[in-house]
Amino acid sequence: MKKFLKYAACLAILVMAAVLMTSCTYPTAGKVTGGGYFMNNDVDKCTFGFNAQGNGDFCEGLKFKGQFQFNNHATEDKFHLNVVELREILFVENALVFSGMDGEVEVWVRVDDLGQPGPGNDDYIKIWYDTNPYSNDPDWEGVLEGGNITIH
Fold it and tell me: How many domains does the chain have?
């Protein structure tokens, strides 16, 4: 039994070293779900729902799955986004950033899980439509007035 524990400890150290030496330096595994509504610019009621999951082994063969639905009820044509395939997922502390395609248009979304439903829940969402999220303000954003975002 002592030999087994010694080998198991050595194997654990080797696996940890392999993880630290890979170029994958950001977490990509996990699951986030959410839905609800927010007021964009304090006047446009927007609703959304999504699920996102990242999954991979030391950054080899990463797989992303999930979907994102969005509706801006203030516009005359009831603007709608339908992202059915996610391309990139990045977890950062209490937030998730993901991207996907709505037809030919790239969509980026950031959601922040800042509490559970009820008073004091400041969950937040930002959505970029066909713009770079790193250099532009979001097209829609707001604190959830109903619903919840949960990082599992």
Answer: 1
Q: Is residue 1 in some structural domain? A: no
- Give the global pTM: 0.74
Distance (Å, whole) CA 118 – CA 77: 32
Q: What is the mean pLDDT of residues 118-132?
A: 83
Quick one: pLDDT band at residue 75, thresholds 50, 70, 90?
A: low
Residue 20 lies in a domain: no
| 11 is a domain residue | no
Residue 130 makes CB contacts below 8 A (sequence gap 6+) with: 105, 106, 107
Residue 79 phi, psi (nearest 5): -50, 130
Please give the residue that has the higher pLDDT: either 87 or 1.
87
